[in-house]
Design goal:
CATH superfamily: Jann2411-like domain
CATH architecture: Orthogonal Bundle
Radius of gyration: 19 Å
Number of helices: 6
Helix content: 40-55%
Organism: Actinomadura macrotermitis
Distance between the termini: 39 Å
Order of helices and strands: HEEHHHEEHEEH
CATH class: Mainly Alpha
InterPro entries: ABATE (IPR010852), ABATE_dom_sf (IPR023286), Znf_CGNR (IPR021005)
Strand order of the largest sheet: 1-2
Shape: globular
Number of domains: 1
Pfam families: ABATE, zf-CGNR
Protein name: Zinc finger CGNR domain-containing protein
CATH topology: Jann2411-like fold
Strand content: 15-25%
Largest sheet: 2 strands, antiparallel
Oligomer: single chain
Length: 170
């Protein structure tokens, strides 16, 4: 199976997970299996794809609808055990089923991202046909598109075309 080139990479893990499914050419592309292979070590290696799909859907619903029941259901599969060692405190994730480890880690990373990101910096792309999410780390906090080379250029081209037509929409 060929590796699918995703339109946006390099985002924090939970947003990167959400961005593994996008519309294209009248259908949907799902790059979850490639993403799983790429992140297998960070996810504990034994993560189930169905559990990752559940986490991806839960995070998307939390982002788009501010609906947290599905996310809380994923988070219910694990907890963090805190221990003191000679080097200081150590957190150890524990899950009720190893198949949920990666999904739980992604859900936890999302909760931490929401807690730690500056307010309003977790955004969806403003392009009307784009469903990708990103963390705006720009200095001025005004990033509007998932990528300037893709959605940003298309938006600027549409605006230029509309100006050239005297303000009429294309």
């Amino acid at each position: 199976m060929p590796v699918i080139t995703r339109p946006l990479t390099g985002e924090p893990l939970p947003l990167d997970l959400v961005n593994t499914r996008w519309p294209a050419q009248g259908g949907w592309i799902d790059a979850l299996e490639d993403w799983h292979a790429e992140h297998a070590a960070a996810l504990g290696g034994t993560t189930g794809l169905e559990q990752l799909r559940a986490a991806r859907q839960a995070i998307r619903r939390a982002l788009e609808e501010k609906e947290y029941d599905e996310l809380n259901a994923v988070l219910a599969h694990g907890r963090v055990r805190l221990e003191m060692t000679g080097d200081g405190p150590v957190e150890t994730p524990e899950v009720d089923d190893e198949a949920w480890r990666g999904a739980w880690l992604a859900a936890r990373a999302f909760a931490e991202l929401v807690r730690d990101a500056p307010p309003g910096r977790i955004r969806d792309c403003e392009a009307p046909d784009c469903i990708l999410w990103f963390l705006d780390v720009s200095r001025n906090g005004r990033r509007r598109w998932c990528s300037m080379s893709g959605c940003g250029n298309r938006a600027k081209a549409r605006a230029h075309y509309a100006r050239a037509l005297g303000g009429q929409a294309p």
